[in-house]
Amino acid sequence: MKVERGRIVRLHYTLRDETGATIESSRPDAPLDYLHGSGQLILGLERQIEGAAPGHAATITVAPKDGYGEHDPRGVIRADRSTFPDGMDLAPGVEVQAETPDGPLSFVVVALEGDEAVLDANHPMAGKTLTFDVEILDVRAATPEEIAHGHVHGPGGHA
Questions:
Q1: What's the structural domain count of the chain?
Q2: Contact 37/6 with Cβ under 8 angstroms?
Q3: Residues 63, 77 within the same domain
Q4: pTM, whole model, 2 decimals?
Q5: What is the dihedral of CA 36, 42, 48, 49, to 10 degrees?
Q6: What is the pLDDT of residues 99-130, one digit of tens each?
Q7: What is the DSSP string of 7-36?
Q8: Domain span holding position 99
Q9: Contacts of 89 (CB under 8 A, 6+ apart)
Q10: Domain match, 64 and 131 both
């Protein structure tokens, strides 16, 4: 059976950044199970494994536009440190949330400059070219319930 929309795929992956540093890996004993075509993988990776069968192994490079998007400078803002709750540990790398008219929005503190915090709403991997070493372990038909719920049930998913 091949990887295609509506199939459950089990794979191992290692994700590396532009320098070759490993960001995360499912090896040795935590393979990823997902419903292909449901948006659970970045589009560039999902497209490149479409049609693959168990046993297929590849190194796949994903450009920012097909991964987490380009870094958008409009997502970087400055906020006066006095607007944060007293005692809040503001430091680079800390995630904070702000209420907006469209609901909550997450930011990462990227710098503290004087009385201001520099915040970034971009995904941490936005603007980065990503490399995946992928091995397809298994492909099976999804159950009607898995398709209706949009994710894997049972082993590798939830019961």
A1: 2
A2: yes
A3: no
A4: 0.80
A5: -30
A6: 888 889 899 999 999 999 999 999 989 999 99
A7: EEEEEEEEEE-TTS-EEEE-TTT--EEEET
A8: 73-120
A9: none
A10: yes
